[in-house]
Amino acid sequence: MRRKSNMWIRSGVAVFVVFFVWLQLNFLSYSGSADTADLNESATIFSMVPSVLHKFLTPRPRNVSNINGSATNATYRTSLNITEIKKFIAQCNLQQTIYNEDLFGPLQNDSVIIIVQVHDRITYLRHLIVSLAQAQDISQALLIFSHDIFDEEINSLVQSIDFCKVMQVFYPFSIQTHPNEFPGEDPNDCSRNLKRDEALVQKCNNAPYPDLYGHYREAKFTQTKHHWWWKANRVFNQLEVTRNHTGLVVFLEEDHFVAQDFIHVLKLMDNTCKTSCPQCNILSLGTYLKTFSYYADSKKKELLRAIKQQATVNVMQPSWTFQVLPSLYQHTQKVEITPWISSKHNMGMAFNRTTWNLIRNCSEFFCKYDDYNWDWSLQHVSQYCLKQRLHAMVIRGPRVFHIGECGVHHKKNNCESTGVISKVQKVLKSAKNHLFPSYLTLTYVTPLKKTKIRKGNGGWGDRRDHMLCIGMTAR
Ligand SMILES: *[C@@H]1O[C@H](CO)[C@@H](O)[C@H](O)[C@H]1NC(C)=O
Ligand SMILES: *[C@@H]1O[C@H](CO)[C@@H](O)[C@H](O)[C@H]1NC(C)=O
Ligand SMILES: *[C@@H]1O[C@H](CO)[C@@H](O)[C@H](O)[C@H]1NC(C)=O
Ligand SMILES: *[C@@H]1O[C@H](CO)[C@@H](O)[C@H](O)[C@H]1NC(C)=O
Ligand SMILES: *[C@@H]1O[C@H](CO)[C@@H](O)[C@H](O)[C@H]1NC(C)=O
Ligand SMILES: *[C@@H]1O[C@H](CO)[C@@H](O)[C@H](O)[C@H]1NC(C)=O
Ligand SMILES: *[C@@H]1O[C@H](CO)[C@@H](O)[C@H](O)[C@H]1NC(C)=O
Ligand SMILES: *[C@@H]1O[C@H](CO)[C@@H](O)[C@H](O)[C@H]1NC(C)=O
Predict the structure, then answer these.
(1) Disulfide check for 394: which of 54, 284, 426, 438 has CB 3.0–4.6 Å away?
(2) What are the tens digits of pLDDT across the range 87-103?
């Protein structure tokens, strides 16, 4: 997770952690065997994945002659220069090629569309693809990958998918394609910690617009929210193939992992909404089982960074164990009806065009809110723009898991660790008999406290960001 947080979130996290420790103490018989079994992680994982899918986990041998032929950029896995990448992206976004349409037929207006936001963490993406490959009914879905990095290995991985229709879209305002200009970092931009008075004297680009904590924009922290808003606009309003689509769009990220029955559960939830919950307009398939906040306010940011470096192992290794999960699946059938809360219900979200039109109409609230987190911005929309707040139906036994141990901006040595992945697979295996439920039971959850959010987390004070974001909705 990559977000700033504040006191109530952190105390929420603490309660959460305590809760899980309590669960573990009460329900688990401690045995070291699970951990020893993980010693050879890759062997464990391969043994859990059908052999026909091993190809998605195996990097292709690099084409040496290619690399020698043209200078491969060490920063990004590509041999193209920026001009060429921009050209490719423009073409690709124009052509809107759908792979495998010949095999799986055209998109129906009620088919499930899955859109995955992809940065550069290919190891996680491989596992997400393996999980999608095993999902029932995936062959009728359209799987869209939305990239903010042009990466030849990722492209060839995505294009090797053979179990459903696939499409790639490329976020055109990326830092990769704008390394020295906005939305990337312009050499004339004010540096993050510059005081406003000094900035005004220096006349750096964005001098009048620090965020509400007095900091100037950091390009890499703005990209995720821009990308999220762009891809939502793209999928609902700018693709030819979705023009008549009225079904659900599921929002995933590269470090998610889905259960085999996630589409089944999604449809069941959708039907349950229609009969029993007219106010529900967002479905949520995930639950955070471990929550770790990377960013608090600016000072804590620094501190956390230091802590993380010293105690990487403690922070990165899940302190809970997935063995606790099967207990959730004994009540698989349970769903909660609750006001949508950004920090709890932002994973494995799905909604249709009706909901999107409400959100889209609030683009100013989303784009001008001084918070670089897309989900907090959406919560702002929900509370201050919509006539009725977003309402979620949330499945208690998660069907979407977060396997990324490290956030987008936190590349550490053991980020490629696959420990969580094998744990998720073990959970799903032991919960097998409880997957594919035939009905759901509803629980209504009223939040204890009023969850009015205070001021935003900052990082989004720059007018250029507001305009770029709003421009994505304009057409
Ligand atoms: C782990 O398993 C793989 C595949 O079976 C094998 O190639 C590798 O040598 C093993 N590694 C260790 C450290 O045992
Ligand atoms: C490597 O790249 C060259 C030139 O693009 C191509 O001719 C050759 O077939 C490639 N080899 C492999 C193993 O992909
Ligand atoms: C690689 O890409 C980065 C960012 O676009 C650029 O700054 C750098 O000069 C490139 N390096 C090479 C060798 O092309
Ligand atoms: C990028 O590559 C193209 C074709 O290889 C070349 O014509 C162009 O000059 C290159 N641009 C830059 C900025 O290096
Ligand atoms: C979906 O398409 C079918 C025919 O292909 C049509 O009968 C139906 O009305 C459409 N549904 C919506 C909601 O547009
Ligand atoms: C959408 O519906 C219109 C009118 O029914 C039809 O002409 C068009 O071909 C449809 N487009 C797609 C992509 O299905
Ligand atoms: C879209 O979702 C809304 C709830 O937000 C629901 O009322 C509506 O029936 C859904 N539309 C379709 C075509 O399923
Ligand atoms: C769109 O949002 C505005 C506020 O920005 C609100 O006044 C208006 O009622 C909304 N329209 C619809 C159709 O929801």
Answers:
(1) 284
(2) 999 999 999 999 999 99
